[in-house]
Amino acid sequence: MLETLSYTFMQNALISVVLVSIITGIIGSLVVVNKMVFLSGGIAHSAYGGIGLAIFFGLPMLLSTSLFCIFITLIIAMTSFKHREHLDILIGITWAAGMSLGIILVDLTPGYQSDLMSYLFGSLLAVTGDDITYMSVLLALIIAVVFTFYRDILAVSYDTEYATLRGVKTKFFYTLILLLSSLTIVISIKVVGLILVIALLTIPIYIASFFSKSLYSMMFNATLLSIFFSLIGLTLSYNFDLSSGPSIIMVSSLFALCAFIVKHFKKR
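Above: the chain's sequence. Below: its structure in token form.
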């Protein structure tokens, strides 16, 4: 595999894997701690609507999908504040409607023959320089937000009522975490696709939670695990001619199973 590192597409794949691993390690920890996995799943699948809009109208893929996901995220956030009892229904609707809109727009696009599987399950080798720039900017934004508002985010994540009594703007930070999650989902499409992105946001965090004593350590450990799993998955993908996204998730899942078994026997 070392000789392939001289190729630009392979260099882009490795760089993107590391960047996305850091991003998902940080945001995934916030998603899991704040119990937003189902919310993120709805956003991830509705993102296909943004892909359909980009294809049909000839718009930049990342920009179109990001704006669409931000729109969906704001709707979900406002609903969760005012009508929480209807949140599950709304997520189900946006999940199905977003994917349906994307598929219909792709069907209506004249002469479009692209492989839709790359959007559903990822295509690491198709990562471009612009994608890496987007990932780098998003990572810088996430680090800046977490570093600046770490105490407030920590309070909101573990005890919303206490955070509110302290004067923390809980609704603002809740929405901010959701928005960063939606942008993370968009950028992760290139690596593992819409179908598997939630696994990338949760599996390394699940394993990291076994030996992490704080939110910061969870983010750090989850990032290292995500990089490790992604590099192994990418190597297997190259050597055995497999899809990169499913390879990464299968490696992660196997390690998660091993971690669960070890934890089970330790308890006994």
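Residues 24-129+178-267 form one domain.
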